[in-house]
C-alpha cells in the first residue's frame, strides 16, 4: 500500500512540475512578445548597422524640395533638390550591382513623356570598404533634373517616388522613400 501511495505522490509531483514549467514558458513567451514590439524602435539596415529611431523621433537627415522650370509650353524640367544634415551622404543613382542606389519612379505617363534619364549634379567617388566597391554619393546638397515632354493641353501633376539611402561615415544608414508631386502647365498646342 505504501508503494501505491508513493507512486501516486510521485505522479502528482510530476504533474505539478509540468504545470509550473508550462506556466513559466507561457509567461516567458508573453514577455518576449512585449520585448519584440519595444525593440521595433531599432531599424537594422541591409548592411548590419543599427539606427535608433526612438518612439516619437523618426530620423530624417534628407530634406527634399521640388520645383518646375517650364520655359516653353511643350517642355518642362522637374528639379528635385535634396538637402542633407551635417555628416550625412546620399547615394547616387549610378551604383552598380546591388549597391544602395537611388531610384526615381514616375507614375502615369499619360500627360507627359520622360525625355532621357534623370540627370544628377556632380557626385563624390570613393571606395567604400563596407560595400567593397567604388560608390558615388553626395554631401550637403544634391540636385536632380528630369526633362519631360508635355503632351496635355490641360495643367496636370506628375507624381512618383524616390527610393534612396543616406548614411553617416560610420555606416549608420537610413533607407527611405519620398513621394513627390510637380505641377506642370498644359501645352495649348499638344495633340
Set down the secondary structure blueprint.
Layout: H1 2-39, E1 42-44, E2 50-52, E3 62-72, E4 75-84, E5 89-91, E6 103-106, E7 112-120, E8 124-128, E9 133-139, E10 141-150, E11 156-167, E12 173-184
Antiparallel strand pairs: 1-2, 3-4, 4-10, 5-9, 5-11, 6-11, 7-10, 8-9, 11-12
Which geometry do the CA atoms define? elongated
For CATH, the homologous superfamily of the domain at 62-182 is named as Thiol:disulfide interchange protein DsbD, N-terminal domain
Query: What's the CATH class label of the domain at 62-182?
Result: Mainly Beta
Give helix % range.
10-25%
CATH architecture of the domain at 62-182: Sandwich
Question: Main beta sheet, described?
Answer: 6 strands, antiparallel
- State mean pLDDT (0 to 100 scale): 79
Report low-confidence residues grouped into runs of 5 or more. Answer: 20-56
Terminus-to-terminus distance:
104 Å
- Radius of gyration equals 28 Å
Order of helices and strands: HEEEEEEEEEEEE
How large is the count of helical segments? 1
- The CATH topology of the domain at 62-182 turns out to be Immunoglobulin-like
Strand elements, count: 12
Helix/strand structural class: alpha+beta
Binned strand content:
over 45%
Textual characterization of the structure:
Pfam families: DsbD_N. This is Thiol:disulfide interchange protein DsbD N-terminal domain-containing protein. The chain is an alpha+beta fold and 191 residues long. It has a domain at 62-182: Thiol:disulfide interchange protein DsbD, N-terminal domain (Immunoglobulin-like). The protein is 20% helix and 47% strand. The chain contains 1 helix and 12 strands. The chain has one helix at 2-39; strands at 42-44, 50-52, 62-72, 75-84, 89-91, 103-106, 112-120, 124-128, 133-139, 141-150, 156-167, 173-184. Strands 5, 6, 8, 9, 11 and 12 form a 6-stranded antiparallel sheet that branches. Strands 3-4-10-7 form a 4-stranded antiparallel sheet, with no helix packed on it. Strands 1-2 form a two-stranded antiparallel ribbon. The longest helix has 38 residues, at 2-39. It is elongated, with a radius of gyration of 28 Å.
